[in-house]
Task: structure prediction
Amino acid sequence: MEKVRISLTQAQMLIITSITASGHLLFIPAILNHTGRDSWLCLLLVVPPALLIAYTVSSLARMYPGQTVIEYLPLIVGKLPGKLFAVLFLFYFFHHALLSVRGFGEFFTIAITPDTPILVYFAAILSLAVYAVRNNLEVLARTNQLFLPIMILVGLSASILTHKDKDFHNFQPILEFGFEPVLQGTLTLAGLYGSFLLMSMVFPYVSRDAKSFKKSSLITMIILIVMFAGPLTGPVAVYGPERSIGISFPTFQLLRDIRVGELQRLDVLGILLWSLGSFGKISLYLYSISLGLSQLFGLKDYRSLVIPVAALIAINSLMISENFLEIYRFLRDTYPYYSNFMGLLLPLVVLLIAKWRERSKRKDGGDGDVQETAQTQTG
Amino acid sequence: MYKKLRKHKRVEHRERQSEKESPPQDATDSADATALLPDLQENIKQFSERFGEKSDLVVRRMNTGDDRRAVVLYLECLTDETLINDFVIQPLQKQFEHWSVERHDLPPIREIHLSTNQLNVVKSFEECNEHLIKGDCLVLFADSREALAASTPGGERRAVAEATNELVVRGPREAFNEVLQTNLGLIRRRVRTPNLQVEKIMIGNLSRTPAAILYIHNLAGDKLVNEVKSRLAKIEIDGVLDSQYLEEMIEDRNGYTPFPTIFNTERPDRISAGLLEGRVAILVEGTPVGLLVPATLPMFLYANEDYYQRYDIATFLRLLRTGTFFLSILLPGFYIAVLSYHQEMIPTPLLIAFTGQREGVPFDIAVEVAFMEMTFEILREAGIRLPKTIGTAVSIVGGLVLGQAAVEAGFVASGTVIAVSATAIASFCTPAYEMAIAARLLRFLIISLCAVLGAFGFFFGIILVVAHLNTLRSFGENYLSPIVPFKRSGWRDLLVRVSWRRLRGHAEENIQPGENA
Result:
């Protein structure tokens, strides 16, 4: 297999796409549902946990350069527990993929073409993802590198064009219902940022030295937080707290209500954002799951797994829930705890074990490479 | 299963190759069969057998006093007969007279002087045949196992003329012709550095077509040059009649793609510009089309005039051209998607007008557009190979009569005619013909996707095409470079062309093949 190398910027862009794509579509309503008009406070409160996630993932990648999380887990926690952890992480990725594929399909069947069966959209987006992933990560990274600036441009212009409709008095009074709803919303947002863990499948292929990962990850996280400022505050400012909660896709509704001269109802912009974004996100997940599975079972090439995994995703995203409301309720009630456990807590534990092992090894007098010591430990 | 089949084919191919190689091997085994014979008559007989009794091989016998004789052989269609007369036959006669008076013998072959450009001593029939085919004339002597080959090139060739396909308002007008020598001269005259390397090779088992690899020594990367050489060396083909043969045989194995990954042009200035950017050019005898590698997508959207005009105007035109390129692929699909799935986007008065037009049209919009596009493709194909005088008739019948009548008959809506003809005109803006063809194919892909999936189909198509473009490579260079992977230096000459003052350093940084990500 040829050597795959992507640049650090491309890796950053991949993760930005994969978190914002369905984040802006599916998670905004869940967060708004918790917080109402205080949604902007979440952005401030989420900074520490988000940075912690970025720090954890990048430190691990730095300690084990050239290896994915599936590969270095057994080195840290031992062979069998490592495999167990790997299965957990892969399940987490898989679940995320299901959510985003289902969310993508629901978006189209609810908002755009109600008569089309949802499976059509699953098949379409997954076949694109299969095409990109079966080529290699480079193709995916470059395609996304071309699309992300376009998406950001559309997003920025959307927030500028809606500015005249925004009434910032809608944010008053602050903390009408106390701190608890805001904390709930922050937890949801932090859970979303937990999927930053996906970067640990991409880092090994970044051509840059592993030392720069930490700084760039923190920067990426800050960019991600800034990118949620518009979508989180926009619906509240335009529609008011009560109405914005009732809309199933508030950000899409915002785009729809843009009016520039004779041009109106720019659904196409929304379709652009969420088809290009979902393509990046779903491909990245498909890639990570296939690669992770192949590493878990010691296969040489992940390509043979891509189509089966895609098929599994398509079927399971149908079975994951009865309807969109169920997903929505899951995202609101269960997801924050589940995702924070998987995306923040587990990696943090793994990092602590790794650090502790490194330190104990140093105390023993071995000043050698971390990776080497870890390998000797597992045999 | 498929792999097995391919392997089988490959084995077959190899067998066929070895068969092809075997006859010459047999011939070389018996060295006497190929070496010239001491008997002159026998030699002549051999040649006339080889080329046929009544062929264009001219055998001019010369008496040289006594019984000893010499013979001049040449192919009349490939040589210049005045050259042969003035510089081969006359000098020979003079020298023979001189010799036969003094020594009553023929001079040793190496002491005969002919005033042609090149003079070689040849010993075997193989060599002789090669020289004859090249347009040299052979002088055979009695009682000698050696012969002389003097270069006397001739034959009809086209003069260097104005470019017919790649026109410019301002800039050099010369185009290549079919003669490799002339073409090399056109380039040498533009790039006057001894660093310009010209390597001649021979391609084609039967056609034995000369070709040349050109590059500037310090600018083109060694890796690239070696890659080009090795790919050309691997070619196994009977005949090469146009550079397209080579193009298909040396292009990267990207799997199926409608996009050209090797640039071709008929303009020496374009090739020279490529050389100055560090690219490698390939010229082939017998065709006015030269090749340039590596080629990236933006190259196909540049016109050479971009560099001969003021940079601000050039930039405007380049942006226009890029825009029309996308239009030529996307417009009909977008029209279908919006009109059949997203009518709410259209301003109401316009929507009413559109709906009014389509009142009497029984077909779906997608069917309408596909029908008009096909009609247009047929018209275009019909127009290309017709004589120019009839060509205008086709455009009148097609454009005016068919278009208008179709609308009036309620066959298509006039909106569709506008969309299709706007697309057609946009597609004429693409400077590279190969890229315009690729766009034509992709247009149908987008049309069918939009007809099925609406706006999502539109973006589906875009994602598919962009992802596909990202899989492409041309001699190690990414096809979309420098857009992705992003290279800042490349952007000075991408969508905008900056002034030559700031573009100067461009060449050296431009091509670093093999550099990924």
